[in-house]
Amino acid sequence: MTYPLLVLTLAVSLAVASTVNAADAKKLADETALLKSLEITPGQLKPLVLDTKLVEDGKAAAVICHAADPAWREAAALIQKAVAEATGVMLPMKTEAELSFEQADSQNVILLGHLDNNRHVARLYHNFFVCLDVGFTGRNGHEIRSVHDPFGTKHNYILASGSFAEGTRKAAQAFAELVRQKGSKGNLTLGRLLEVTFDAQDRASPAPRTLNEKQREDLVSTYRKVMLSPGQARTAVARLVDYGVGFRRTGDREYGLAYRDMMRALLEYYRTDEYISGDGMARYDRDFRDSWTHEVAILWDLHEESGLFGDQERLDMTNLLIRLGLECVIYQGWNRPDRLASWAKNQDIVHNHNTFPALGVLFVGNYLKRHYDAKFVGDWLAVAHGIFNGQKHSSKPQEDSAGYQWLPIIHVMMYSLATGDLTFFQE
After folding, report:
1. pLDDT at 12
2. Which of 61, 311, 365, 408 could staple 377 via S-S, CB 3.0–4.6 A?
3. Cβ atoms within 10 Å of 83's Cβ, excluding its own
4. How far apart are CA 127 and CA 118, in angstroms?
5. 52-197 has which fold?
6. What is the pTM of this model?
7. CB of 65 within 8 A of CB of 94?
8. Which neighbouring-strand residues pair with 147?
9. Across residues 378-384, what is the average pLDDT?
10. How far apart are CA 102 and CA 285, in angstroms?
11. How is the chain split among helix, strand and coil, in percent rounded to 5?
12. For residues 51-76, average pLDDT
């Protein structure tokens, strides 16, 4: 007995499946080709600006920029004197108001001050490069931190200060001792610097805990397995972020190693997961990648110069960032000309499923624009600015319940401070 209708149905189904599979294969091939065209090559890998020249060939190669408060000026003068004694060269001193952002970016700068009394420290703080505010170190604690080429100008900042005058003087004394050790007649160059000390007195919160080797190994072992488990990457990336932030705020090497190992796990996940490779960049976002791309990008920009990664890993991680940003774009449909044009001119309030990926492409895009002059991120940044252009004029997003109400507001504040567009706060 034959069943013509069944045979016909099966034939049609197989034909449709064959067409769908061919379309899917073409889509994946097109996405792979697009990603390949955007990735950087080994020869394009950005050179790291690890050394900070303060005096070179008998001439000043940096400026000391201090808060206008007398205590911070005294600490700056202590550093100026130490440099002069070690090299024979007097570095110029300016208050934070006397030095423009453009002038600062065109040279190396030694900073004394914190979030509330030095706008150049505030600019770095708002872009997550430094941690120093009035609650960070405590009265006698201090932060000495080199910030390497943060804005793509090939110049560095060195922060040597505390949350209070007492800690700032200690920072200046410690920095002056370093100058005496490293300086010579007519020359002074410093490498990576990361020294954070805490004092419980007048500190806003307890000092961050550090890790020991055993704790780090156990944590990485646990969360690497989570990272490689289907649909669990969001949980593992949260730990990656914890370790990256811990390294930034303490300088503790075990945190740094844990961050490195979790970045390696994230890269492995993206290279080996069948769902990621088989369903393409517009796949259902089961890892909620849109919500953490900005965090991964921010931390990479902070720690690329840390010495934790060799050049091949730097290349791999940078191309992973490109993929994460591109996935945000394709998943949201921002690669379509009509969607791009609509968002670029947006004036409406938004919700968190707009602002999460907008932050992702903002921070990935700024990194690639500053350090690789990547032209393709112009569209990404246009979308990000458009999304926040609507929200920055309103204290309320589309949502009005629980955390969903506050997420876009937190995001627009991050956007406003990082870009320097203070409309949200001023209105």
Report:
1. 44
2. 365
3. 24
4. 15
5. Chitobiase; domain 2 (3.30.379)
6. 0.93
7. yes
8. 157
9. 98
10. 40
11. 60, 10, 30
12. 98
Burial code (b: 16+ CB inside 10 Å, e: under 16) for 29-55 equals: eebeeebeeebbeeeeebeebeebbbb
8 A C-beta contact, residue 146 and residue 192 = yes
- DSSP result, 164-226: SHHHHHHHHHHHHHHHHHH-BTTBEEE---EEEE--STT-SSPPPPP--HHHHHHHHHHHHHH
pLDDT (tens digit per residue) in 113-130: 999 999 999 999 999 999
Q: Residue 16 CB: number of other CB atoms within 10 A?
A: 10
Burial bucket for residue 9 (CB in 10 Å: 0-12, 13-18, 19+)? exposed
Q: Which amino acid is at 229?
A: S
**Are the C-beta atoms of 150 and 109 separated by less than 8 Å?**
no
Dist. CA 197–CA 50, nearest whole Å: 23
Copy the structure tokens of residue 48. 């790291």
Residues near 62 by beta carbon (within 8 Å), at least 6 away in sequence: 52, 53, 54, 55, 91, 107, 108, 109, 110
Distance CA 54, CA 60 (A): 6
Q: What is the pLDDT of residues 190-228, one digit of tens each?
A: 999 999 999 999 999 888 888 999 999 999 999 999 999
Widest CA span in the chain: 104
CA distance 256 to 319: 21
Is 335's pLDDT higher than 70?
Answer: yes
3-class SS at 162? coil
**Residue 120 contacts residue 157 (beta carbons within 8 Å):** yes
Please tell me the distance from the alpha carbon of residue 149 to that of residue 158, in angstroms, as a whole number. Answer: 11
Contact 227, 239 (CB under 8 A): no
